[in-house]
Amino acid sequence: MRIETLLNCDNGINFLTVQIDDSGTGDIVGPAFIGLTRVETGTIIIKEIPLELFNEINWLYKKPHSYAIQLVIEELNELNYRINEEKIILCRASIFDMLRTFFMQKGIKSEDGVIEGSLQTALEKKVLSYLKQIGVDQSKLDIIDPATDQNKDEYYHDRNKILREWVLDDYKNRLKYVKTGFKKAFARIKAEAEQKKR
Known about the structure:
The protein is α/β, with parallel strands linked by helices. The chain has seven helices and five strands. Strands 3-2-1-4-5 form a five-stranded mixed beta sheet.
């Protein structure tokens, strides 16, 4: 996958903040989404990491991580980002590990931080919309409220439990939605599916 760097620095407004976040990267079901926002204007751009990049081979070679770089470059260009004239706050998620290295190599300053607010909410809605589309019971999946939620880890744990049970209810037809590159989680689903057959 060839990544073209099209980022340019030009004169313009200084000291704006760009936040970059992800959603769905830890879910056992479905694709993932990468989003960014320019905080001061409220502009939000979201793009998808396809589910097939989370299969066993692609995950082994960190294809979702390199694809995340490509998506962020596209998003920054759509935002008309100005190198080193705007502050980048990057979610601490491991999906961005290669992006952090890329930024360092290109001399793009960024810092890790907790992303909350409109971007996180928009990304969560994107994931939940996809899950509803494939038939997951939406009533079981409440959107995190970034302003009040204090148990995000517990929420994501519970969401994966719901998704695992959903897959097991029709394993043969829903296996295609599973991130098979997540070895431990996928092995658990396979084992539980075998038990249900007996």
